[in-house]
Amino acid sequence: MPKIVRTLTIATLLAATSALAQEATPAPEEFDGAFTWTAVDLSTVPMGEGQAAYVQETYIVNTDAEGPLAGLAARCVFMGVTDLATTGMRDTGTCVYQDAEGNQLWDRLEGVSAGNGAAYGGSGTWIGGTDRFEGASWGVHL
């Protein structure tokens, strides 16, 4: 099963109240999260010239024993274009992560791979969530 590591930059935003406005904003915090993932092609449409458009569902599990993302699992939907000869691809998608308590964290990603076994990389943004993840707005680097 492939493994991806996401480096997440978290910038803490302070409310604009007079008491908080006088405090310095903390520096962004970076941390790594290790994930395993499995992808299932839902639909593929030939495009000619050796390319195909696709829709894919991906299942992701965080393998960290501790940390802010420990225990999260996600279901994602991606769509993109692949080069059939090299398996290179470019896609975009959204993931819904959930912890054991039902808290959700959502992200939007764009990724690319040169194919022939090259690593998948990209970037995105955590775009919100529920409960403990409400208001999440962090950068994601794959």
Summarize the structure.
By secondary structure, the chain is mainly beta.
Task: Tell me about this structure.
The protein is mainly beta. The chain has one domain (3-141). Helices cover 3% and strands 58% of the residues. The chain contains one helix and eight strands; from the N terminus they run βαβββββββ. The chain has an eight-stranded antiparallel beta barrel with strand order 1-2-3-4-5-6-7-8. It is elongated. Mean pLDDT is 81; it is low at 1-27.
The side-by-side strand order for the widest beta sheet comes to 1-2-3-4-5-6-7-8
Beta-sheet strand percentage? Answer: over 45%
How would you state the average pLDDT, rounded?
Answer: 81
What's the total number of strands?
8
Rg (C-alpha, Å): 17 Å
Count of helical regions: 1
Low-confidence stretches: 1-27
* Overall tally of domains: 1
Order of helices and strands: EHEEEEEEE
Bulk shape? elongated
Q: Which structural class should the secondary elements be placed in?
A: mainly beta
Keywords: Signal
Signal peptide: 1-21
Give structural attributes:
142 residues, mainly beta, disordered N terminus, signal
Write the layout of secondary structure elements.
Blueprint: E1 3-10, H1 18-21, E2 29-48, E3 51-62, E4 73-83, E5 89-98, E6 104-113, E7 121-129, E8 139-141
Antiparallel strand pairs: 1-2, 1-8, 2-3, 3-4, 4-5, 5-6, 6-7, 7-8
Signal peptide: 1-21
Keywords: Signal
